[in-house]
Amino acid sequence: MEAISFITNELGPRVLNGIQYEGIRYALGTLTTFFVLWVVLSQFIEDRKIRKPTPRTKQIKMELKASFRTICVFVAMDILIFEAANLGIFQKYNDFGQYGMVWFWISIPLWIVLHDAYFYWTHRAMHHAKLYKRTHMQHHRSHNPTPFTAYNFAAGEAVIEYMFVPIALIFIPTHNLALYIVLTIMIFKNALGHCGYEVFPRRWARLPVLGWLTTVTHHDMHHERGTGNYGFYFTWWDRWMGTEHPNYLDCLDQQIAASKARKQAKAPILVPAE
């Protein structure tokens, strides 16, 4: 009876709340990106499509099915984290006064920088022959990605992707709002990184500071070639470790040149008046 009571009164509501939160977070990032770029703006940003043809409905259905599995894994781990937080294992807190607003704003970019390092090394590790088939191969079934590729994970990769959250919470005092902000940034960056359109100014990649940010092309090349360009937010680790594709910048230059050529071809021919 106690087990039934726990499932009914405790576990059931937590599962429902977790599905609601993770489902909304996923939909917010992927559906917004898909609707804005693939539906509303597609005709206006046609020259920013990185690769053609556009993926078919069959691929998107496969990605949505895998995404549901990923959400289920994330919900299960959410429950474990919140339970452990109640036991004092993780440094999650609600009171802004506990660490102050300065730390609140520092903690968000700190999470991003550390997540980038975690993502790079786990991503690179999952490309090892002994791990690839069991973890990362499902994700690369999306050779030409869509926003829904963001959660196209095997269960093993979903666990690995999520594990950064509990690891970080052990060492970094994090306000609940800061955590939600970081998780929202993660899903939007993930969806944009797989959107198939170069939404960032291509010339940024050659600038001293802005060149640290990964473009959509940076990750798209990873899907196209199946290796290299392992970074998520920044190009740092790829450049430090020599895993950035050597023609990454050239690829962006070629996109700029192709875009100019298309615009010139569409430009009206002016006939001088006699």
Could you give a quick summary of the protein structure above?
This protein is mainly α. It has ten helices and two strands.
Mean pLDDT reading: 90
- Catalogue the unreliable spans: none
Q: Count up the helices.
A: 10
For the termini, the CA-CA separation is 96 Å
Question: How many domains make up the coordinates?
Answer: 1
Structural class computed from helices and strand pairing? mainly alpha
Spatial ordering of strands, largest sheet: 1-2
| Spatial extent as radius of gyration | 21 Å
Question: Describe the biggest sheet?
Answer: 2 strands, parallel
Percent strand equals under 5%
- Strand-and-helix sequence, N→C? HHEHHHHEHHHH
Overall helicity: 55-70%
The global form is globular
Total number of strands: 2
How does this model look, in words?
This protein is an all-alpha fold and 274 residues long. It has one domain (11-247). Helices cover 62% and strands 1% of the residues. The protein is built from ten helices and two strands, in the order H-H-E-H-H-H-H-E-H-H-H-H. The protein has helices spanning 2-40, 57-86, 100-126, 129-132, 155-162, 164-171, 176-193, 216-225, 236-241, 248-266; strands at 92-93, 174-175. It has a two-stranded parallel sheet with strand order 1-2.
What distinguishing features does this structure have?
274 residues; mainly alpha; two-stranded parallel sheet
